[in-house]
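Q: Convert this sequence to structure tokens.
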Amino acid sequence: MVKRGNRLRFDLISKIVPLNSFPRFRAPSRPLDTGKRATILLVDDDPLQAHIRKSLLQHRVAGVERAADAAEAFILVEQPHFVENLGLVIVGLHFPGVGGPAFVSEMTSRLPAVPILVLGCGSDKAVDYVGDNVRFMARPVATEEMLAITRQMLSRRLAGAA
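A:
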């Protein structure tokens, strides 16, 4: 039997990615209300995870910019108008190349006042990520916990910038 249209697409996707693996969307419990606009730079090389995280974060923060790799992130942070509103960097890089501790070290040397949240993978360890404004979360990362830490780090950054 040949299925047509969206039903076939849904069946194929649900076989590849089980529906219960996606976080359930809920209305924002506490949107960030700081009176200032802040941008979150989401650096993630996994397109699916980046899309999910970006859509979740956009309901909490006015602006989320995604960079697919370290090079793209460094290009963004070299732009003064981008850095002016940058409140937080969230990192989920796990492919070979500049990623993980090397990326975080370089980012903290370029932007020491901007906090960085690292979403670690199985081989990452918290001791590999040092810095006053660096926080490490081991995977799997609970959505609500990530959002709460994001809110906390961003609030501190905005309070410190005032």
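The two ends are 63 Å apart (CA to CA).
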